[in-house]
Amino acid sequence: MTLRESAAAKVNLTLEVRGKRPDGYHELQSVVMFASFGDELSFTPAAPAAEPSALRAATEAASDASGVTLHTEGPFAEACAQGGDANLVDVAANAYARHTGRQINGVFILTKRIPVAAGLGGGSADAAAALRLLARAQSDAIAPSQQPNETDLAALIPLAREIGADVPVCLFSRAAMMTGVGERLSHLAPISPLPAVLVNPNLPLSTRDVFRELQAPPLSASEETPAPPKFTGFDDILAYAREHPNHLEAPARRLSPSIDDVLAALENAPGAELTRLSGSGPTCFALFRDANAASAAAEAIRGTNPGWWVRATSLQ
Question: Would you tell me the crossing angle of helices 291-304 and 258-267 to the nearest 10 degrees?
């Protein structure tokens, strides 16, 4: 049986850096939402005695520490291999094998649609999808045809933290406030989908470089983490976002001036209510009240900037 999971793109509605911790990591406070599009990951379990040549015929790369192989396809497959996103699927598989003590055998196929090094959490979303697939395939408590429930996903959080800061929130792929380095989650009440446009100038930007450029001050031990917001509609979200910025936007713009052009294009789009950088960039987004306005804006921006990646979507 081949199992499939979506790996939704992550968008940081806000991203505040509260300071640099003694361990070198940055303390964050971020409201995260997920797009209605993303990568796709499938897993076909194989018995340990499966014929190796049959597996090789369907794959391009083999993992180091398990019987898992990985094939990558889609518009960003080549960039994914260069940027390491695909490797996070292998990392997740190996971590799951160590965590459970189970031998894992099978084939992953990753369809890469999220731009790489784009501030959209593509690699983290792929790793989270791999964990969900393996939970379905390997766990005695979860039937392969079922999606893991909240309890099942919560049990994977410690493992997800080992893989990356954004992997825990991507396990659930729903709106949340992230604090700490991303490991502490407060999920938000469901909201109606927010029409949005995502634009990437097709230039990768290193998260590490952006944080280095930020030069955040040391974390104040006396600073308290506020309660997560309670959104009831678009106006609440808009008001909150305007009061809580993305602290990485300024350093990202200094490192990648093309972000200025992307933000200008989104700000000039009819109906755009809020424009902002997502994560460490360079992908930017705009929120709209109307899905038709978002689609029209995406078409217009794509027409005048054929070298950019442009996507109309919705966030929840």
Answer: 140
